[in-house]
Write a structure and sequence with these properties.
Blueprint: H1 6-11, H2 13-23, H3 46-50, E1 61-72, H4 75-89, E2 99-101, E3 106-108, E4 133-136, E5 149-156, H5 159-170, E6 177-184
Antiparallel strand pairs: 1-5, 1-6, 2-3, 4-5
Length: 189
């Protein structure tokens, strides 16, 4: 597009286009996932939600099938299971840069993470893909214990793919299951 076009400059459209460009929030499949709290809509970051005010609610959520290898309250037990499943099936591990902080009893980004809004805080895996990660079950299943963790092995856009992944996963994780989840996929910044 030619931003020096006389009609754009005269009409002020250039300013509008630049404002839209600078304030836009895109979330591609390969983009780093943005954090959220254990609730599908975070309570703490009011400014982050203001950018979604004009977006229809149905565009801020997606229904996905989440494959869970196991659940539990002990991070170290689930972490061991994660490595066991990885060794057996070769599924990739993606921590999203998070680790467990025993003093906080929280899976979180480092305090000095480049994302200043969510540094030191938890955010969930929300984008479809087959990766092993430790998450909080309450992100995917409402009304579950907020401390209950889940070893997630994948998020799928359709049940058929999730069921296929589950069949493979059952050999390494007999307790594995699939749950349908409505995930917030809107921008949080």
């Amino acid at each position: 597009m030619n931003f020096n076009h006389p009609k754009l400059i005269k009409s002020g459209s250039l300013c509008v286009l630049l404002a839209i460009f600078l304030s836009s929030c895109t979330q591609g499949q390969q983009e780093k996932q943005k954090p959220v709290k254990a609730d599908p809509l975070p309570n703490q970051k009011e400014a982050a939600l203001s950018k979604t005010d004009s977006v229809p609610a149905e565009e801020l959520y997606a229904d996905y099938d989440v494959v869970v290898a196991d659940t539990g309250l002990n991070y170290n037990t689930l972490r061991s299971k994660l490595f066991q499943v990885h060794a057996q099936l070769g599924l990739p591990i993606d921590t999203l840069g998070r680790t467990f902080y025993p003093k906080k009893n929280l899976i979180a980004l480092p305090e000095d993470d480049e994302d200043e809004i969510y540094a030191g805080d938890y955010f969930p895996r929300r984008i479809p893909g087959a990766h092993l990660s430790l998450e909080y079950l309450s992100i995917y299943k409402r009304h579950s214990n907020g401390h209950m963790m889940a070893l997630v092995s994948g998020i799928y856009e359709n049940r058929k793919s999730a069921d296929s992944a589950l069949i493979l996963l059952k050999s390494a994780a007999p307790k594995a299951f699939v749950l349908r989840s409505r995930l917030y996929i809107g921008c949080l910044h």
